[in-house]
Specification:
The complex is a heterodimer of chains A (about 375) and B (about 1100). Chain A is α/β, with parallel strands linked by helices and about 375 residues long. Helices cover about 50% and strands about 10% of the residues of chain A. In chain A, strand 5 (about 255) and strand 6 (about 260-265) form a beta hairpin. Chain B has about 1100 residues and is of the alpha/beta class. The chains are: A alpha/beta (about 375), B alpha/beta (about 1100). The interface of A and B includes residues 301, 307 and 316 of A.
């Protein structure tokens, strides 16, 4: 058993160092890895009550988040999992299978308060099936709960795996025939979204090159290979071209609680240009990118500055010594620049992101 | 996605069930960081507040290394403790770190490698790094490439990681870099040459074989050597076998690449992505720190993946402040960009901090100015101090109002008093208590040298001026500046002047920079010439031009050295000789194959460490002595010889290095001593027959002073040598005859024959060349003929002795530093090779004699002809040098030769006179001893073409005769500036490539008969049959024509090969003797 524990510890450390070394990049990738590690941790864990389990997961989550605070999806996944575990636990404890997923609306939100609090039923020690802190058989609690938990974790995993399809399912409702769409970067979500829409509609996509990573090249290649008529334009012409564009569809790295988001460099440029031309900005993102972070005054480092080599070659010895090159990987796009978020959980305006976050995570977990 | 693929690669590696091992040499083996490293090893110095060892571990862990051996020498306990306390030893990381403590006698990386070998810890391919590496390069990718290569090529034993940088780059060490010659396609490292900043290196030597074997090569001096090597298992064992390998680059890589026995290859991995650099000196400490702060090492940056486990917040302007609110910054203090401030540090009012790294728990008081300063932990900088471009050790206390100028190193625990004033490049450390000093003496025997240095420093500490430097109440001692007393014992790299280039400093190019460029320049001249004479049988002048003169000068100078050496180890040689004879006897008796015998000889040579020439002598001697003497029957004798030579001749070339000229010389000297003297001619013919020597070689040998027995005191021996030489003379005559016989009338032959009787020794040479020239170019125009004659005259003057050369006006312009005597021999030799070359030139067009223009257009020279300066007059130059030198001769000579001309007498005389009338300008041109003659000769072939067009216009020729002189002068300075350029110019990558086509093979109908009556076979100019790619610069500067370039390269290449072998041998010997 200790070997198992050691094994799960090892898995955590491996992921930690991979995150630190940027061997796992991309929010979905990181989220998937996190779920897998957490599944291993839970399956190997020994606990006799829910608090032990939760504190265990939180400690693991803390380690992972500290390893790479800029990969927000790691923390989001941990939070989501904790939320699911609590839910399962509550269901098991109360014995009734009432999913009690009441529908929220802005009108009754304040009255309803926290979703969890409403769900929580008074803990009944009398539950036969589940007994915490059983002195005779300390493992009984875990033994009974574990299968349920594994199912919950599997749900999260499934959700992550089907996220692109779920987001794209309404694609044809967002894109109309003969529209001109502008996109930037190479977001898998956006790519799938556009490809699915192309089944029903014919439209044109303008892809910005997205320097200095030039992901736009891949994006344009991927789209045109799917039969979508695509144009690749330099970033500098985004503004000039904006008047012809019907819609800007971009991906996000993380959606913040205030409705703003981190997205690949250049997104701010595109979003601002769109604002000037009153072109709608549509953001496609999985729910796992919802981050309970009120980033009103985001800190400078959050933009994740990468190495300057893609901007200025290391060979330019003379310049290297004299020029400081900043190469931020992300832009912070404020909520006022975004019109709608399309998630696998429906479409939401930036102003209701906070509510989504409240639904998705437990308040206790905002600080892991 | 790159991470994905890399992780799958990692899986691949583990799938093979091979644990990736790494060896860290955690000792610097030098003292560049003293006094910061007195008291702790270099690998524990902090860079951006994490120890170098942590950075190295992180770099390796990135690559998925699972097992790390840390080889420590000095302060092993500290290293061990550091590893034990670090996060790396946590079992959950899956890293297995083993520290190995080597003995104090480990002075070089080579010793450490031998230690690794004896411990037998290496089981598979491993990564070898120094303990001062900062890298984010994907080493696992390098390992994968290496393993893939190993699958097909077992001899690829090592892959070095190099990173391209610009010509000027802060991270590329000026004091210690290298020239890499890479195959452009396979990036195999073909040649490695270490470059020191001082004395500045201006020449690179590149073995000719490289040019012959590889269609495209890159010669690069812009690579940062990252110090990451992926090695195969046999690398440590190679160190074990070659006990004198010290440095991994200078000895091991260079040794492996130049070895003619090992047959191993080393590759380079040119890392386009990623960053890697070594903190090898204080300058690179500075640049690597800056690179880290500028995020070149991403994701190894302070705010992301800090190896020391600290967490920093990245704020605008690449400033990094420790997280957790432990840093106290005064409201009025200024923290500029590119700064890193450790946890717990207090910075007081109005302090100004620019581009500095400050450790943990430091206190910076009010009004302090820090610019480019690296402050280690727990330091205290007193109010109002100003520190620039320096490194301040941990726990240092700098008193109020102190100034520390650039380049200072302040050791740990130093206390500087109030108003201390450290000058530039001062090094101070803490004065030790008496008891402590004694103790450490007992404890660390290996620190002896350091102690002596310290004591010396301590002894000087009493004067008042010192107190002024370090302030009142200081516990510091100031280390001596300037070169150390035992400077001579040091490695070239470690010498003071070179180390100056490796200190933390204001960036290069800054007007305030202290780099003494003019100083470098003045010393370099004498230095270069010194080196030229002592080690450079072959110097390639910055690759741009090699005059045959330089290469030969080296040979003539190196020969005496060899002779002295011969006396020295005579006993060893005779022993070796006996062994060789024995093994050859056995080989002859038992009928071994030539290859086996060659291997045996190679081993013998390695065992007794003798130069190649000795082996050659032994082999030649054995072969010659084996030939049975058949009295009276010439034919039988001939059969005997050809049997012997046919069977064993190839062995001469298989013993490791082909040098036919030397072979002939060896043969000559042996025959002169032996009873088989009469057989010399026949043996030589047999060698020629078997293509072991070729016509050119015989001519080259013939032209050498040694061949004539010059300088030999033993009269009978000298006589015999002379006789052999005369045999060679005859042979060359026959070569000439053979060419001319088709076209020549017999009358001319007889004419020629008369000459030797008049001037016994000298005329033969003249006849040899002169006749051939005439005969081959007989049908060509007058101007061409004339040049041929001039040349023959010239060689006549030069060949017998250096009389003419000495008589020639002094030549001050170009190789000013080379001594006059060298110049003579240079000239002589260049003439000698000219003879040889001019024959080639002449021969090529002569074959299809009827269609001369088309024939000559096959020679590469013609392609460059249009751009070349008017060729005919240039061709005159060398002739005129000699004609002024010996005024009596030329006229008669001209007359004579023009008389010989059977067909074009009239047209011939005229130019001859013209030539004389041109004497004064030609003298002027003779000031360029190297370029002018050789250039002239190179243009002969064009001359033939040109003059055909302008046959009638003698006036024209005369008027143009004055032209080339200024032109030649112009070209010479250009060439010299080209060579004088710093090594950086070598970075010219071979992008614009001039391809020089192979020489035209010269099939020669051979009904002619050599002295011994054997038909000659068509000669193969195989050694020329390759193409060479060169930067266009090279061509321009060195020569005017492609033909010339080819010649330059080939002659140089031949010499170079020999030269490198000699150097190697000498180095080996020297090392042994020091041992």
């Amino acid at each position: 058993m200790s070997a198992d524990l050691h094994g799960s510890q090892r898995a955590v450390e491996t992921l930690v160092s991979k995150l630190r070394r940027r061997q796992v990049v991309g929010s979905r990738e990181a989220a998937l890895e996190t779920v897998l590690v957490l599944r291993q941790v839970v399956s190997k864990a020994r606990f006799s009550n829910i608090d032990q389990l939760i504190s265990l997961i939180r400690s693991v989550g803390k380690r992972l988040v500290e390893a790479q605070p800029k990969e927000h999806s790691v923390g989001n996944t941990v939070r989501k999992l904790l939320h699911h575990i609590r839910e399962e636990y509550n269901t098991a404890m109360t014995g009734n299978a009432s999913s009690s997923k009441t529908v929220y609306s802005i009108s009754n939100f304040v009255l309803q308060g926290q979703p969890r609090k409403q769900n929580v039923a008074p803990k009944s020690e009398a539950t036969l099936t589940l007994k915490e802190n059983d002195p005779d058989d300390p493992d009984s609690f875990a033994r009974v709960l574990k299968p349920v938990l594994m199912e919950a974790i599997q749900d999260v995993l499934d959700e992550l795996e089907t996220v692109y399809d779920n987001i794209s399912k309404n694609a044809k409702d967002h894109i109309h025939s003969d529209e001109i769409i502008l996109t930037i970067g190479h977001s898998k979500t956006v790519e799938t979204f556009l490809k699915v829409a192309a089944h029903h509609r014919s439209f044109t996509v303008i892809v910005a090159e997205t320097g200095p990573s030039y992901n736009g090249h891949e994006m344009a290649r991927a789209l045109s290979s799917a039969g979508i008529s695509s144009f690749l334009v330099p970033d500098s012409s985004i503004y000039a071209i904006m008047s012809r564009v019907n819609k800007v569809i971009i991906g996000a790295h993380a959606i913040l609680a205030n409705g703003g988001m981190f997205a690949i460099t250049g997104s701010l440029l595109a979003a601002n240009a769109a604002r000037v031309h009153s072109t709608p900005v549509v953001v496609c993102a999985g729910q796992f990118k919802l981050t309970p972070l009120w980033n009103l005054y985001h800190d400078f480092g959050a933009l994740d500055f990468a190495d300057p080599s893609s901007v200025l070659g290391f060979e330019e010895g003379n310049l290297v010594d004299k020029v400081d090159v900043l190469n931020p990987y992300y832009d912070y796009v404020g909520p006022e620049l975004v019109d709608v978020f399309i998630t696998n959980d429906g479409d939401h305006p930036p102003s209701s992101v906070y509510r989504l976050i409240k639904e998705t995570y437990d308040d206790d977990d905002h600080e892991l | 996605m790159p991470p994905k693929s890399s992780s799958s690669k990692e899986k691949d590696l583990t799938d093979e069930d091979e644990v990736l091992q790494a060896v860290i040499l955690a000792d610097s083996f030098n003292k560049r960081f003293k006094p910061l490293t007195s008291g702790k090893p270099r690998c524990l110095l902090p860079v951006c507040n994490a120890t170098l060892l942590d950075w190295t571990f992180e770099s390796l862990a990135l690559a998925g290394v699972q097992e790390i051996f840390v080889v420590c020498r000095s302060y092993p306990e500290l290293v061990k403790a550091a590893i034990r306390d670090s996060k790396w030893s946590k079992p959950s990381l899956g890293l297995k770190i083993v520290s190995i403590i080597t003995s104090k006698e480990t002075f070089t990386p080579g010793d450490a490698m031998r230690d690794i070998y004896t411990r037998g810890i290496i089981t598979s391919d491993f990564v070898l790094v120094m303990g001062d590496l900062v890298s984010n390069i994907r080493i696992d990718e390098v390992v994968r490439v290496h393993k893939e290569r190993r699958r097909t090529n077992k001899d690829a034993i090592m892959t070095m990681v190099v990173k391209p940088s610009g010509v000027v780059h802060r991270t590329r060490s000026k004091g210690e870099s290298a020239i890499f010659v890479l195959d452009a396609e396979t990036s195999e490292c073909l040649h490695y040459e270490h470059v020191t900043g001082y004395p500045p290196k201006k020449h690179a030597k590149i073995p000719r074989e490289i040019l012959a074997e590889h269609p495209e090569i890159e010669i690069r001096n812009d690579l940062i050597d990252c110090g990451i090597d992926v090695c195969s298992v046999e690398v440590p064992s190679l160190f074990q076998d070659n006990f004198d390998y010290g440095d991994i680059r200078r000895d091991f890589v260079h040794g492996v690449l130049t070895s003619d026995l090992l047959m191993k290859s080393i590759h380079c991995y040119v890392a386009r992505e990623g960053y890697a650099a070594r903190v090898a000196d204080t300058r690179s400490y500075d640049s690597v720190s800056k690179d880290i702060l500028a995020r070149w090492t991403f994701p190894l940056v302070p705010d992301d993946n800090h190896p020391g486990g600290h967490s920093y917040e990245h704020i605008r302007g690449n400033k990094y402040l420790a997280k957790g609110n432990s840093v106290v910054l005064s409201r009025t203090c200024k923290v500029g960009s590119n700064c890193l401030i450790g946890a717990g540090t207090h910075i007081a009012d109005n302090a100004n901090i620019q581009a500095s790294v400050i450790g943990q728990r430091c206190t910076i008081e009010a009004n302090v100015t820090l610019r480019n300063v690296y402050v280690f932990d727990d330091a205290h900088i007193g109010a109002g101090s100003v520190i620039e471009y320096s490194i301040v050790g941990s726990n240092v206390k700098v008193g109020e109002g102190s100034t520390v100028a650039r380049g200072c190193l302040i050791g740990d625990d130093v206390i500087l008093g109030k108003n201390a004033k450290l000058g530039e490049f001062e090094r101070v450390s803490r004065r030790r208590d008496e008891g402590e000093a004694d103790e450490s003496d007992k404890e660390d025997e290996d620190e002896q040298s350091e102690d002596s240095e310290l004591e010396e420093a301590e002894a000087r500490q009493d004067s008042e001026s010192i107190t002024a430097i370090i302030g009142e109440g200081s516990n510091a001692i100031v280390w001596p500046k300037g070169p150390r007393a035992d400077e001579e014992d040091l490695d070239e790299v470690e010498r003071y002047n070179n180390q100056r280039l490796m200190r933390i400093e204001i960036p290069i190019g800054d007007p305030a920079s202290d780099l003494p460029l003019e100083y470098e320049g003045t010393e370099s001249d004498s230095d270069a010439s010194e080196r030229e004479s002592d080690e450079s049988d072959l110097e390639m002048h910055a690759l741009s031009r090699i005059s045959s003169a330089t290469s030969t000068s080296a040979i003539s100078t190196s020969t005496p050295g060899l002779n002295i050496h011969t006396l020295h180890d005579a006993a060893a040689y005779s022993e070796f000789q006996a062994e060789v004879t024995q093994s050859l006897d056995r080989a002859f008796a038992e009928g071994h194959s030539v290859d086996n015998a060659a291997v045996e000889l190679k081993t013998l040579r390695m065992a007794s460490n003798v130069p190649l020439r000795k082996v050659r002598e032994a082999v030649v001697a054995s072969i010659v002595e084996r030939i049975e003497v058949v009295e009276g029957d010439a034919a039988a004798q001939r059969r005997e010889i050809s049997k012997m030579v046919g069977r064993w001749g190839p062995l001469i070339d298989k013993i490791g290095g082909v040098d036919p000229v030397e072979t002939i010389e060896v043969l000559q000297y042996h025959c002169a001593k032996s009873a088989r003297l009469p057989l010399f001619g026949q043996i030589l013919a047999a060698l020629y027959q078997d293509d072991i020597v070729e016509e050119d070689d015989i001519r080259a040998w013939h032209a050498r002073p040694e061949a004539k027995g010059e300088g030999l005191k033993d009269t009978s021996f000298a006589e015999n040598v002379k006789r052999c030489w005369l045999v060679g003379t005859k042979m060359i005559e026959q070569f000439n005859e053979q060419e001319s016989s088709e076209e020549e009338s017999g009358e001319e032959d007889s004419d020629e024959e008369e000459q030797p009787s008049k001037k016994p020794a000298a005329a033969t040479a003249q006849a040899a060349v002169g006749k051939k020239e005439e005969s081959s170019e007989e049908e060509s125009s007058s101007g061409d003929d004339e040049s041929g004659e001039d040349d023959s005259q010239d060689s006549e003057d030069d060949a017998p002795a250096t009389k003419a050369a000495t008589a020639a006006p002094s030549q001050p312009s170009k190789p000013a530093s080379t001594p006059a005597s060298t110049k003579e021999s240079e000239e002589e030799e260049s003439e000698g090779s000219e003879e040889e070359e001019s024959e080639d030139d002449a021969l090529a067009p002569s074959q299809p004699a009827a269609s001369k223009p088309s024939a000559s257009s096959t020679t590469p020279a013609v392609s460059a002809a249009p751009s070349a300066p008017p060729p005919v007059p240039a061709a005159h130059a060398p002739a005129l040098v000699s004609s002024t030198a010996a005024p009596a001769q030329p006229s008669t000579q001209d007359e004579e030769s023009s008389e010989e001309e059977s067909e074009s007498e009239a047209s011939d005389k005229e130019p001859a006179q013209t030539a004389q009338s041109q004497a004064p300008p030609a003298v002027a041109s003779s000031k360029q001893p190297v370029t002018a003659p050789s250039k002239a000769e190179s243009e002969e072939s064009e001359g033939s073409e040109d003059s055909e067009e302008e046959e009638e216009s003698e006036d024209d020729a005369a008027s143009r005769a004055t032209e080339p002189v200024p032109q030649a002068q112009v070209s010479t300075p250009k060439a010299s500036t080209e060579t004088a350029r710093p090594p950086a110019t070598i970075t010219t990558q071979t992008e614009s490539v001039a391809t020089i086509p192979a020489a035209v093979p010269r099939p020669r109908p051979g009904p002619d008969v050599v002295g011994v009556g054997q038909p000659l076979r068509p000669q193969q100019a195989a050694w020329r049959r390759h193409s060479i790619h060169f930067g266009d610069k090279v061509l321009k500067s060195g020569t005017t024509t492609g033909e010339k370039a080819r010649r330059v390269v080939t002659t140089a290449g031949r010499q170079m090969k020999k030269g490198i072998l000699t150097i190697l041998r000498r180095n080996e010997r020297e090392k042994q003797s020091t041992r």
